[in-house]
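Dissemination and training. As part of the outreach component of the grant, students in the summer workshop were shown how a complex can be specified as a set of sequence lines and then modelled as a single object. The example used during the hands-on session is reproduced here so that future cohorts can follow it. Participants entered these lines:
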Amino acid sequence: MINVEKFIRPATVAAAVSHLKTPDSLVLAGGTGVTLSRDPNVRTVIDLSELKELKSIELSDERIRLGAMVTMTQLRRASGLPSALVAAARAIGSTPLRNVITVGGELARGVYWNDLPVALLAMGAVVELTSESGVEKIPIAAFLAEHPKKTLAGGKLITAVEIGRPLAQVGYVKFARTEVDYAICNLAAGLRVADGVIREARVAVGAIVPLARRVPEAEQALVGAAPGEEAFARAAKAVVEAVEPRPDFRVGREYQRQLLESLTRRALETATQSEQ
Amino acid sequence: MTNKFSQVGTNVRKVDGMALATGGSLFVADLAPENALCGMILTSPHAHARIVRMDISRAEALDGVYAVLYHGNVPRILHTTAGQGFPEPSPYDTVMFDNKVRYVGDRVAAVAAETPEIAAQALSLIEVEYEILEPVFDPVKALQPGAPVIHDEPDAHVVIPVPYDKDRNLAAFVETSVGDVDGALAKCDVVVTGTYTTQYAQHCPIEPHITLCELDPYGRVRITSSTQVPWHVRRIVAQCCEIPVRRIRVVKPRIGGGFGAKQEVLIEDVCTMLCLRSGQPVLMEYSRKDEFVSSRTRHPSVCTTTLGLTKDGKIQAIRMHMVLNTGAYGSHALTVGSNCGSKVLPMYPCEHIEFKMEGAYTNLPVGGAYRGYGATQAVFSVECLIDEAAARLGRDPLELRVQNHIRSGMGSPIFKALGEGTEGVEMTIGSCGLPECISLGAEAIEWKKPRQSSGRKARGVGMAILMQGSSIPHVDMGAATIKLNEDGSFNLLMGATDLGTGSDTVLSQIAAEEIGVDTTMMIPLSSDTDVTPFDVGAYASSTTYLSGGAVKKAALLIRHQILEVAAEMLRCEQEKLTIEDGRILGGAKVITCSDVALHSLYSHNQKQIMASASHITEKSPPPFAAHFADVEVDLDTGFVKLLKYVSAVDCGTTIHPKLAEGQTEGATMNGISFALTEEYLFNEKGRMLNPSFGHYKIFTTADMPEMVTIMVPTYETTGPYGAKSVSEISINGALPAISNAIFNACGVRMMHGPFTPERVARALREKA
Amino acid sequence: MIPIQLDINGQTIEMEVVPDLTLLDLLRAVGVASVKKGCGEGDCGACGVLLDGVYVKSCLILAAQASGHSVETVESLGNVEHPHPLQTAFVDAGAVQCGFCIPSMLLAAKSLIEDHPEPTVEQIREGLDGNLCRCTGYVKQIEAVQTAAAVMKEEDHD
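and obtained this result:
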């Protein structure tokens, strides 16, 4: 931040988006990820704090819409949100961090420990991106297919996240050494069950991989099966086989695999116990 | 129990509490003048290297740089950074800057500059060429023949007659034995043995080390420092900077926690030298990373202990072999090592005891004083082995402890055999509330209640019993001065160093009780080397017991002086008079301490009512404690959830019950966090990988278990109003109590701290 | 340099700052001693302030970012003669040992009592989870928050 020349606080999304083209600009939401940045190239900071239109949670019959500037504390306190979303919001940092960390920031950051994207992957959320050429909505899996920095290049701003109804049953588990810690492994599972058979499954993993992602191998192992110990064990095995843990100075490879196995089962169990 | 005292035993308002809670400018950083230069230290990126070339000229030439220090321009004065009494039991193996670095984080150079940015830039301009040497990180390997020699300089030495062999990386050595351990073990029905290790951990005061040095118009250096040992700072800075003690004044303001980390003269010497060289005020503060990497740590340990018992459950023999990793310098290695024996072995009196301790240099961060001071490391093995023995004998581990533990009136040959670098002091136990600690603690944890394990979660309960000491007998001294003011208030000038513990309050209560006034009439001032009398400092669990003794003596002298003047004023015999709540009773009329002060200062035979007293102790009466842990182990992930923790403590009289509880709770929580999560992680080159609170996890409110604290009153006749120490003991219990609870829950024995999910999971796999 | 204007405990200040100056360093530079630097990395929580009433860590907020907003620190709560019920409760409960982390923790407590006027132990544990304290073991602080909340509720009724 040492060479920043300008702080801009746009009043509208349109104005914010128009500034994104400014060379060497940086978007500031909650700030926890960027204020300590030593990046000498940043010249312009675009502070989104005035964008009231991005600060609301909207619940409708069709969807849940989270503005990009909605904080984790807002998610924690809102009523009517899926329990997995609230659990993921609660899992992030500590109170004064949750008070400033935003939905958009959690998605744009693209660091291994981000908690929210894992839950949103299992929910099949859609990310709304706004640029000068308009608004586009892309599935979060596509948004995270590459590092968010790349996805957002070319003047795109995350303006909202939407979760369509009917909601899947979603379970989210975070594993860390203490309550206020960077995740060692995040796991979320989303299920749609009809007539005692899993019709649709989403299994997402984070922290143990460089960037949160879905695990199709596990999803395939679930679809068509009856929810229960047997199917969940197969899914867990599939996750262990499909996911290559990143090296983590805090834990060894063998233990990471053990976590993948047990947390997958736990996320699936939590999902079946969650509200529809 | 009814309180026969008016001040002692009451929860008076902590004297500095409201000033702190309202955010007053009380800490070193708050007191720095605006023009203070920023002092900053360049540290070594290598674990073991010789500096073959250094060029500071570009740093010196940088605008805004006032002084640059390195081994080429400062005196080479061998000393120890350990803030201990003189001559220190720690080896003289440190110089301000050396031409060799011995761990990642070792000092290389320092600068004083106008701003932190300029200082950082100056450090980056210092050219250092290193010749990398082979490092050694394992303390056991470091002691083996052929290991790299860390202190190959000829001038490192010890200043008291103790074994020291730097050529084999031996920084400290203690050996003692009584009876015939081998013979006794041969006759035992149950022999349990194990090697238990503890990890690198840091004190984590929320205020890192910080020092402000200013030259006054007389050419004296005023050092305002966050220290537990102002007098040792004065002496050691004088030594290192080659200036007389009389040129130095050390002032201790409020301290943001210490826990032993600040019983170390860590940056005061460099800061003073920068101040002297630049002629400017210099503020030097450690970053959180510095605090982890370059400050002091708890000596990691490898402890092999054997217990022998006969089938009746009686402990017959104990053998302990402790290897302490002291890191690159031998700070506190000998005395922490001695305490491994002296604060643990007497717990179970028996006729056959062997103790051996080796303190090994390695190329890792430096050990130091840390709350618990060796007892933490050593009690882990002994208290786990008691449970192992109980399992073998089919006995309740609680009952086995009750059968064997030390009691009032008993002694131990260890007290005499192990001192602090010298021989110890023979001692029999006076007050001992251990039986009550055990029974009340057991009740609170519901010891006998069967724990239901459900699904993949296993429940278990475990305990440990503990002892510590109170001061270092015949070594440490504390002193206090009290003087009376016109309004009947008293200045209480103490060497004793309140580092956040509340000792200013506790010592004020003792003085007030002894004189017969309310505590609010005391105006405590702790630790200004120009103003208050000497005290060794806040360490060795000594402040209440030792410094409290000095305060009580001085207060008694004051009381006599007041009564003498009062008797003169009332024309009666002094013996008839007493002081209650500041009023002198027993004469023809009631007068107040204020009347006495006004009379003595202005009316007749004028004099300042004032007195000083010093105190040393004859013994080091142990506080005792019983700790209990109730855990739930996740059998899938190995995660240990601590559900409830009970600390029952006998610290004699609790002078201030809430502060005593607070000491217990703080120490307990630190011990729990140490047992479950805290550890340094290193790469293969000896660099710490987690030097931040982001990755070195200490417990928050979200992690804490249900905590129960039980203070068990006893009366230690040698202590002020029956008090013993309280601050250290409760950090020692969590490691063994939680290990025992995990064993009880799922049958795996955790012998290496901390009990991280990964370690527990591995142990569960190995068992299966 | 970036021009900023902000309100600190009811006083408006205007100045120019370097762009990477944190709110923490700004507050300390203008003499707000209660805001402490224990890590400067967003971990310890000793630098907490209320920014437009929201409890945040001032080391993770840029001074420029705080421009146009209002900052409240413990100096605005009460003083030695007229302490806030939270300050009284903390001192009397024995929740203040070294006191370094306390000013920030008091603001966290104030914020959590605003959200939960009768906080449960669980709510207090969550509300204070950003504040590291190495002295107390947190027991007395949780007690103090409950005591203060009761007093504050009482005062509200009066």
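The first strand of chain C starts at residue 2 and ends at 8. Students were then asked to discuss how this feature might be tested experimentally.
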